[in-house]
Specification:
With 223 residues, this protein is α/β, with parallel strands linked by helices. It has helices at 2-16, 43-50, 72-78, 89-110, 122-134, 164-172, 208-220, and strands spanning 21-24, 33-37, 58-63, 113-116, 138-141, 146-148, 151-152, 177-184, 189-192. The strands form two sheets. It has a seven-stranded mixed beta sheet, sandwiched between helices. Strands 6-7 form a two-stranded antiparallel sheet.
Length: 223
Amino acid sequence: MGKIFYRLAVPLVRLFIPRLRVEWDVPFDGEPCVFVANHERAIGPLEMAACFPLRKESHIWIYAAPLDRKTTPDYVRADHWWNEEGKLAPLWNRIIPPVVALILPPILRSVPHVPVYHDGRAATTVKESLRLLQAGRNIVIFPEIPTGFGQHDMEKINEGWLMMLPMYEKRTGKPLKVWPVRLDLEAKKMRIHAPFVMDGESPLREQTEELSRKVLQGIFDPV
């Protein structure tokens, strides 16, 4: 049912979201990879799930909380969906989370995805992602750290996913390419920057800062 729902929903979603012009800095080489994109609020995930040229070959990292109706309300309240300082914030806090809990989980579960956990199950996220990559699939990740309504950290990203780079290379003997994706609604453009890889001769901890800088530059710089 999930796959059928996703196929039916994609054309409908594309009618209501901005149509972005897709530009590749270099042609895609067909190798399994990780695409890291800016969130652009809810539009980024919608664009990547419904309009991204490689959506059929890609799985999106989705937080596990909004995949479950029981945990969705708390996720919505903590995820800066509205201005917490606004006069209507108390009303939104009561009304929006339970409504979203009825609608969002079945939609998200229909999207090809990998659940992202923040507890003892976190290792399963990486394990499943590596399995998909080795099967020829791509992974889509939104590494931004939200700091408030419509705001995010411009100097730091979530870096846990970087551990997949040395793990993939150890398993396959090939470097795992990272393609930064910049979604810009104002410019109506989706720019996929040229990929980069980690240095397989050096430990990840020595490269984390530089790899994060490359991601930040790719997902935030003007297109």
